[in-house]
Amino acid sequence: MKIAVDVMGTDYGPAEIIKGVLQAVAEYGCDVVLVGDQDVIRGELAKEHQENNPKVTIHHASQVIEMKDHPGISVRKKKDASIVVATRLLREKECDALISSGSTGAAVASALFGLGRIPGIERPAIATVIPNLKGATVLVDSGAVVDAKPEVLVQSAIMGSVYAELQLGLKEPRVGLLNIGEEETKGNEQCLATYPLLKKDPHIHFIGNVEGRDINKGTVDVVVCDGFVGNVVLKSMEGLAKALMQMVKETLMDSGLLTKLGALLVKSALSKLGRRIDVSEYGGALLMGVKAPFIICHGNSKAKDIKSALRVAKELTEKDVVGRIRKEIIHDEESGEL
């Protein structure tokens, strides 16, 4: 298996990306193509004494799409940008999956223009795994389509169900529509129009409206919303989790001697808690609805995030998540639900 990794346009630069790649190659045994400025990549590999690693190759790309650049325009104009080149490698089947932690907008645009949607899929959706009290919840969509039609949300629910089944091992995952209340009559026009479509679709296990707090309680497996709402929810949760851990540390260290001694006793438990709520353990987010495994990571991804993303990319490719989504969409169309 060969995975393309776009190493350019990230917050921390290529160094963290390449460190994560090398860790993943050593542990998971996959082959990786590093896409970006070849001189920069060679320099980082030399720092890690991995210039001649047979599992790692370089594909030069002379341009970079920065976070500030307009996604669609940049993808069209910068033909040799790293994300565009990496997508081309995926389309031409020189690689089996792709990972990018650059501009999310550019990644989605490159996937749409350079890779294409699965037949029957109107718009793609980003599936993000969020830790909950019982395991994990899949949030769909977390940023691909900021204003989705009801029919698009139904497709997101179908794709999210496939993802939850294959990647999280959940049989008949429970699907909920994110709303301001559980009652069927609650919500904006989008939610009111989407609810009956989800309710009648036989290919998903729809449990009704859910609220934001349900995501972390573990009472729902797949939460459906548009990308605007989903992205706000995701970043709010990430910020809160980091803030709470920081508050706990500061409170323990600013207290008296007995409290500090107690903190030493619970240090192991706190570390375990930190790992449990650490989203980097789940390895990026799958852009569902395009023709090959396409993993999107945060722009501030560190080596651990990239290592996890490579694991997820390998697993999703082996489980043929794209093929399963294609089958489910075809079945839904044949039944007349879409």
Characterization of the model:
This protein is of the alpha/beta class and 338 residues long. It is 49% helix and 16% strand. It contains 13 helices and 11 strands. An 11-stranded mixed beta sheet has the order 3-2-1-4-11-10-5-6-9-7-8, with helices on both faces. 46% of the residues are buried.
Count the beta strands: 11
What series of H and E elements makes up the topology? EHEHEHHEHEEHEHEHEHHHEEHH
Strand order of the largest sheet: 3-2-1-4-11-10-5-6-9-7-8
Gyration radius from CA atoms, angstroms: 21 Å
Shape: globular
Strand content: 15-25%
| Mean pLDDT figure | 90
Query: How would you characterize the largest beta sheet?
Result: 11 strands, mixed
Are there runs of 5+ residues with pLDDT below 50, and where? Answer: none
CA(first)-CA(last) distance: 34 Å
- Enumerate how many helices there are, as a single number: 13
What class do helices, strands and sheet pairing give? alpha/beta
Helix content percent band: 40-55%
A few lines on this structure:
The protein has helices at 14-28, 38-47, 71-77, 82-91, 104-114, 150-168, 189-200, 214-217, 227-253, 257-265, 267-276, 303-318, 321-334, and strands spanning 2-6, 31-36, 56-60, 97-100, 125-132, 135-140, 174-178, 205-210, 222-224, 285-288, 294-296.
Main attributes?
single chain; 338 residues; alpha/beta; 13 helices; 49% helix
Topology:
Elements: E1 2-6, H1 14-28, E2 31-36, H2 38-47, E3 56-60, H3 71-77, H4 82-91, E4 97-100, H5 104-114, E5 125-132, E6 135-140, H6 150-168, E7 174-178, H7 189-200, E8 205-210, H8 214-217, E9 222-224, H9 227-253, H10 257-265, H11 267-276, E10 285-288, E11 294-296, H12 303-318, H13 321-334
Parallel strand pairs: 1-2, 1-4, 2-3, 4-11, 6-9, 7-8, 7-9
Antiparallel strand pairs: 5-6, 5-10, 10-11
Helix pairs in contact: 1-12, 3-5, 4-5, 6-7, 6-13
